[in-house]
Amino acid sequence: MGNYCSECGHPVALKRINGHYLLHEIEHVLHFERGILYTIKELMFRPGTNIKRFFSDDRSRLVKPVIFIIVTSLIYTIVSHFFHIESMISRDLAAQSSVTKILGWTESHMGYSNILLGALIALFTKLIFRKYSYNYFEILILLCFVMGFGMLIYTLFSLLEGLTHIDFKIISAVFAIGYCTWAIAHFFNPLKLTSYIKAFFAYIMGMIIYYLLAILIGSMIDLILK
Q1: Which residues contact 171 (CB under 8 A, 6 or more apart)?
Q2: Tens digit of pLDDT for each residue in 123-169?
Q3: Which uninterrupted H or E stretch holds 191?
Q4: CA-to-CA dists, residue 84 to 50, 73, 150, 165, angstroms
Q5: Which of 53, 72, 170, 199 could anchor a disulfide with 184, C-beta 3.0 to 4.6 Å?
Q6: How many CB atoms lie within 10 A of CB 199?
Q7: Cα(160)–Cα(79) distance, rounded to whole angstroms?
Q8: Residues 6 or more apart whose Cβ sits within 8 Å of residue 189
């Protein structure tokens, strides 16, 4: 009969999960070729080219986009919690309004909230770059890659803040938004200045609408519960 099924190719008997299996899985995720480190390198220098290739040619070169944004958001959360990095939202949570609770959830569940935020930014990106043939879901995948790398920028500055005790929050936001703007423009047309202006506008509008919705929903909850 052999070690593998002649019909589907799966092993006849799965090996028991142990320490070796866990280390192998971690190595597979972090592997520089076709792993998260390789994905980071490619997104750092050629985001538009690599994401287009992901769409049309080879989807095995980069880490899956949703996994990428969740993993990078998790890394940021671990680093910021380890160094006790607090944002202005965290400091205001004592007010215990529904708005601050929603914004607090956004901070503590960065993986999920980034996907929701990306969904709004993708909507504006689709509207602004509507002459291009990419559909909404392709643009959402673009945002998963781009915002995932943005989370690594926030992670780097959180690490620096934890080590130096210097507040880098504004600087990190400038770099992260700057990268996202550049990467989106690089995806559509890196040779046109208007691409960068449109990309910045789409990103900022998505963020504004996300936080306005959080404020609106939180305020409505507080009114109902009064």
Answers
A1: 157
A2: 999 999 999 999 999 999 999 999 999 999 999 999 999 999 999 99
A3: none
A4: 35, 16, 20, 11
A5: 199
A6: 26
A7: 10
A8: 195
Q: What is the CA radius of gyration of the chain?
A: 20
Backbone angles phi, psi at 81, to 5 degrees: -70, -40
CB 207 within 8 A of CB 121: yes
Give the tens place of pLDDT for each residue, 181-208: 999 999 999 999 999 999 999 999 999 9
DSSP string, 150-183: HHHHHHHHHHHHHHH----HHHHHHHHHHHHHHH
- 3-class DSSP state of 11: strand
Contact 72, 80 (CB under 8 A): no
Angstrom distances, CA of residue 60 to CA of 56, 64, 186: 12, 8, 21
